[in-house]
Amino acid sequence: MTYLSCWFKQENSQLVYIDDYKNVSENEDSLLKAVANQLVFVGVDASCHGFQYYIGGVFIQNCGMKPNHAMTIVGYEQTVAGIKYWILRNLWLLLWRGGGGRLHEDAP
């Protein structure tokens, strides 16, 4: 598989039905409560080079405010230095080291 090739194979896919959804208020407390109980799907601006070639650690760079990529928040943690961050997963999972992203909590 090359870097830009698609690894989707229809015969390996599973059908999923979404029967309900809720919008989450745009504040930290609401997002924390939602993530504590289920996966939360978000849109992020993935246009900057640093995001596209993320290799680990807590990502702090500001990429912009125009969502162009979907991700899933699966949790949140805090570093030993006290930096809070969201744990994200997406289709780039196989390309990202560490199995997913860590976005700084206060990132726009």
From TrEMBL:
<dbReference type="InterPro" id="IPR038765">
    <property type="entry name" value="Papain-like_cys_pep_sf"/>
</dbReference>
<protein>
    <submittedName>
        <fullName>Vignain</fullName>
    </submittedName>
</protein>
<comment type="similarity">
    <text>Belongs to the peptidase C1 family.</text>
</comment>
<dbReference type="GO" id="GO:0008234">
    <property type="term" value="F:cysteine-type peptidase activity"/>
</dbReference>
<dbReference type="InterPro" id="IPR013128">
    <property type="entry name" value="Peptidase_C1A"/>
</dbReference>
<feature type="domain" description="Peptidase C1A papain C-terminal">
    <location>
        <begin position="5"/>
        <end position="97"/>
    </location>
</feature>
<dbReference type="Pfam" id="PF00112">
    <property type="entry name" value="Peptidase_C1"/>
</dbReference>
<dbReference type="InterPro" id="IPR000668">
    <property type="entry name" value="Peptidase_C1A_C"/>
</dbReference>
<dbReference type="GO" id="GO:0006508">
    <property type="term" value="P:proteolysis"/>
</dbReference>
